[in-house]
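Design review, sub-item: ligand-bound model
Attendees: FS, YL, KQ
YL presented the inputs for the 5-O-phosphono-beta-D-ribofuranosylamine complex:
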Amino acid sequence: MTLRLAVLASGRGSNLQAILDAISAGTLDAHVVGVFSDRPDAAALQRVTESLRWSRRPKDFTDRTGFDAALADAVAACQPDWIVCAGYMRILGGAFVNRFPERILNIHPSLLPKYKGLHTHQRALDAGDTEHGASVHLVNAALDAGQVLAQARVPVLPGDNAEVLAARVLTIEHPLYLHVLQLLAIGRLRAQAGQLQMDGHPVYTPLSLESAHS
Ligand code: GRF
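KQ shared the predicted structure:
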């Protein structure tokens, strides 16, 4: 099935670009039906044709609920199979999340449940971790707390700073997100009634990037 993807992004959009490149290369059976941003100047928006772009400034709405409702209406109009957060830096409110139950993915630059929120790379360094990584998870109303579907790991190396470590994590974020999306596209991974299933079996522990290859 060709997945219809609505991508939410606030920044540079390298994960979005990886998705677009995989679609072009024929390695991901998907179609980006819209790119949505809370920042009209987000570089991510420039990666797709103007007709696919939607952006509004939250400060132009009277409250957060109003912005979320406008975003949800615009996303729903595209009839996506999945909403893919890729560097979307606003917390999605409960009304938004409940409108698309088990249909929202996020990629977070840590091995969840470690380091929810911001500054994950510095926090991993400060903790003296020897490995770090990224997680793809379902989005619910709590920050970075939905079910983790897949993770990929990188080593923390002597002399790393947050910037160097972030760059290393980013190199595994792109293939990790693509693997999860392709597993969804080919129907091996399914979300049903609050339960993730891989090949018909409940997913209790996150898939690793390596096992996603098998
Ligand atoms: C990535 O590190 C992602 O994990 C985090 O925000 C960053 C987005 O990067 N949520 P990009 O905009 O996809 O390049």
